[in-house]
Structure formats: structure tokens, C-alpha cells
Amino acid sequence: MEELDQRIVQLLLQDGRMSYTDLGKATGLSTSAVHQRVRRLEQRGVIRGYTAIVDPEAVDLALTAFISVKPFDPSAPDDTPERLVGLAEIEACHSVAGDENYILKVRVPGPGDLEDLLARIRSAAGVSTRTTVVLSTPYEARPPKL
Amino acid sequence: MEELDQRIVQLLLQDGRMSYTDLGKATGLSTSAVHQRVRRLEQRGVIRGYTAIVDPEAVDLALTAFISVKPFDPSAPDDTPERLVGLAEIEACHSVAGDENYILKVRVPGPGDLEDLLARIRSAAGVSTRTTVVLSTPYEARPPKL
DNA sequence: GATGCGCTGGTCGAGTTCCTCCACAAGGCG
DNA sequence: CGCCTTGTGGAGGAACTCGACCAGCGCATC
């Protein structure tokens, strides 16, 4: 990816609502040119979308946890992600190397909901779980430096 | 938080670039009223910012990993997050319950960079590390359901 | 080595839409 | 009643978006 696109992406990572006009000023391009490039980045899949960064506690999702997941039957075909995709509390699902197969990042209002969620995960995917509760998060969702 | 704010936040989680006019149509409020509410949400810290969601591979950050971190000296005052905040490869830092003290989420171009980063983490924070490499991520950064 | 063609990626301008601020109204509440 | 909060509506200015046009470049053709 070339220099200009990279700078545009960098700027949009830092402020996803920046206007095309400002992006143009920051990159030395005209508004239309920037707009065109952003559209291309979007349809190439480099930019997958935009979102607000929200304080989880303010929306009643005070409890974050990582759940490591391992199928009961390692020989069965592994469709864990599809089985879990319907659980909205799961923010992310990573397939990982190591003892367990997947790491899930989940957010729930409180401990009771976590207990409930764990039961639903186990029954939906046929897996055993190991949960690591997040006590606090010093930082999160930092934009990467390109 | 009341119903209307919640719906606005929900919409902005799904599309961080939605215009105030559209937010108004979706919530039945006038453009000005929505704008006012969003501003309040921002300055109350409910909305911390906006960002583009970018395909990591497209920006040469193909390797994601979780690094669990534990100080060499458990009795020393723990300022690990501050010591690591300067390392741009670290996307998130969570203090967790369990055997280790923190879980870091990091992104680097490749294995060599991970090795290098681990060395920098250890020397900067005086910690031992255990890293879990992400093989693939079925989904990530899903907007929570409010 | 020129000529000419198509492609890519840029500027410019104009019409439309959106943002943003302000004045004012409607509803709690002491 | 007065005050605070939260809405509405409108107007001026800024931003978006589209089309027309242009410059550079690769390349087949003469």
C-alpha cells in the first residue's frame, strides 16, 4: 500500500469522523481525490468500517473476560466460531496456538451474566472453558502506528 | 443512561460515520437534538472517540498475539502499564485475575518483530512473558448489543 | 522514435446536503 | 412564577458528491 493511502488510514484510525476536506488538507490532496481513495480503501476491504469507541462501564458492560476454549472432542470437525457467532456478548474470537483452540473476549454486565454466558458457550459449542477475568484495563483499542 | 442515548450509541457503534441527520431520522429527533446528545455523550466520556476498523493484514500487521506478563519482583510497586505505554505495538493492556498480572494484545508484521517486541517488553517492564500466537481471527471488534 | 489510445488518478466547479449555531417553545420542579 | 432541561425550526456556511476535464504513463502501432 502506498504512502498516501497509509497516511489516510492512519488519520482515520485516530479520528474516524474526520471530514474528507480535513483529510485533504492533511495529505495535500483535493477533497475529491481523498474521497475517491477512501472509497477504494473501503471496497478493497482495507477499511472494514467505522465505529465509536465507547466506555464499556457507561453502557452497563462493566465486566470483561477472556475465555479460552477447547473442544471436548478434538477429533470432531471444528466449527466453534460459527456455533458461537450468535452470542452477542462475544466481542472477538481468535484461533490460537497453544493448549486451547480459541480465545474469546467477552463483555457482560456482571458476574452472574458471565456465569450464564459460560454455560451457553459450553452447550452451544461443546467445549470446555477457562476464564480469565479482567480487573481493569489501563488502555485498549489503541490505534496502531503504521 | 436513557433509552434515546442508548440507541444513538448503538447506531454509532455500528456506523461511526453516520450523519446527525440520519441519526435524527433513526431516532425520531431533530438534527440539532441528536447533535446535542452526541456532544454530551462525548464530553461525559461515554463516547471516547471514533475510529476506522482496518484489516490488519492490509497494513502489514499480520501477526497478532496475546502476551501474559508477570513481574520478576512481585513485591515491587507495579507500574507495568506506564512502562509499556510507549510501545506502539501494544494495542491493549488488561490487568487480570489469575496466575499472571496483565494480558497484552499486540500486533506486529511478523515473527521476527514479535521476538524483538518481547525483548523490549521484558527489559522495559522487568517482567516475564508467556505469549499466545493468534493463528486466525474469525471475528473481532464486534459492536456489543445494548 | 514518434503517434495515438486507453487507463489511472488528479483538479475544479456547481448543486445538493449536512453541520452548527441561535432564538424560542414546551414541559418538569422548587 | 422562574429556572433548568431538552426540543424544534431556520439560516448561513461548510462539506459532500458528481460530472467534466486534464496530465502522466504504458504500450501497441506505424
From TrEMBL, chains A, B:
It comes from Kitasatospora phosalacinea. InterPro entries: ArsR-like_HTH (IPR011991), AsnC-type_HTH_dom (IPR000485), Dimeric_a/b-barrel (IPR011008), Tscrpt_reg_AsnC-like (IPR019888), Tscrpt_reg_AsnC/Lrp_C (IPR019887), Tscrpt_reg_HTH_AsnC-type_CS (IPR019885), WH-like_DNA-bd_sf (IPR036388), WH_DNA-bd_sf (IPR036390). One of its GO terms (biological process) is response to amino acid. Residues 1-62 form the HTH asnC-type domain. GO terms for molecular function: sequence-specific DNA binding. The keyword Transcription regulation applies. It holds the Pfam family AsnC_trans_reg. This is AsnC family transcriptional regulator. Keywords: DNA-binding, Transcription, Transcription regulation. The keyword Plastid does not apply. One of its GO terms (cellular component) is cytosol.
